[in-house]
Amino acid sequence: MSNFVFLLDVTKQPLNPIHPGQARLLLKQGEAAVFRRYPFTIILKKEVLQTSKNIALKLDPGSKTTGIALLQDNQVIWVSELQHRGQQIKNDLTSRRQLRRGRRGRKNRYRQPRFLNRKRPLGWLPPSLQHRVDSTLTWVKRLIRYAPINSIAVELVKFDLQKQDKPEISGVEYQHGTLYGWEVREYLLAKFNRTCQYCGATNKPFEVDHIQARSKGGSDRVSNLTLACHDCNQAKGNQDIKNFLEDSPDLVNRIYLQAKTPPLPSPPLQGRERYVSPLIGGIKGGDAAVVNSTRWKLYNSIKELGLSVTTGSGGLTKFNRKRLKVPKTHWQDASCVGQVPLNLVFKTNQPLLIKATGHGTRQRCRPDKFGFPKSHALKANFFRGFQTGDLVKASIPKGKFAGEYTGRIAIRFRPSFVLQLPLSKFDVHPKYLTHIHQNDGYNYAFKK
Prior knowledge:
CATH architecture of the largest domain: 2-Layer Sandwich
Number of strands: 23
Mean pLDDT: 85
CATH class of the largest domain: Alpha Beta
Distance between the termini: 11 Å
């Protein structure tokens, strides 16, 4: 079952979404035309004076993926999963910072520091987190343009990281936390028996190493820290531990196991046994922190749209999902957010997969991996009506690649573009290309 099709009248006013079969009939009879490919929208050739607003938009915000669902009465008619690119933004900013710092050291060694004139506005979020809010808000506004939405329900949940790790923790122990009575370095020295976890060296100065590098999304929680000698720490860098120790899988498993085990024997602290988080690499904790940081910013941004906004807890979402006996996926979680009818019916089971890719880069100078310039980007973004990332249909009449293809293009400033297909790519002249969907910063697919 496919998603319902968005419908506009000739004045571009949103009407109730219709079944795909009805949309095909309107297109076949010439009463409508294709307005947009993703999300698929058709436009009537006549005006409709009035339509009722009875569509509810439901959101299940996540760290990496946000679930989106549209409900009409007791029917789920349109669903999607929006994949964010927060980690890519963080990696790009890290790379830019390293290149700038290297260039500053080479060319401006004696420049005075300028760290005191940086001001952040109230409610500022790091770019990797602000992106999650902005991309979700973009799709909320887009769906409001294509469907008569009258209400929005958002899952507003706060993760308690200590309760996640140890549900039975309470009282004074909850206030103290994991490292009460310890210093981090002393805690790690006792935990790992003053031994480098990578080469087994002893009687050396040790450094605190992140099992999953911070630049790759790791946290500073003690469950993500280990001991390493200087040489091993430098050799590992920000590599994934599985890549660094690819020849020693048993050692990787042992480090993971020991990372979530408290040191033995544990010192008595007010008669209570201390506890170490079992989360490996801080991955779950990092995702929970992202949701905690962005939840109110997203909620307040959606409220500014002027529609009725309600919230639901994670427990209510889980209760609705269990009651309806549906699997746990992002789009099905979104369908179960907030108040849900007792007889909810899923009219679709094929979500639109939306992946944020961005609009390219404004960087004019392209450096190599050492930070030295290697090429310069051209000023123009468009050529012959096309831009990089456009989804096109290529109809090639003759030659080695004769046939019809659908894919995305990378433009060149000469009569030859690169057509990128799932498994190959080749050059094609723009006269053989027809636009299907202009690049809007997202890639689209359907879950099979």
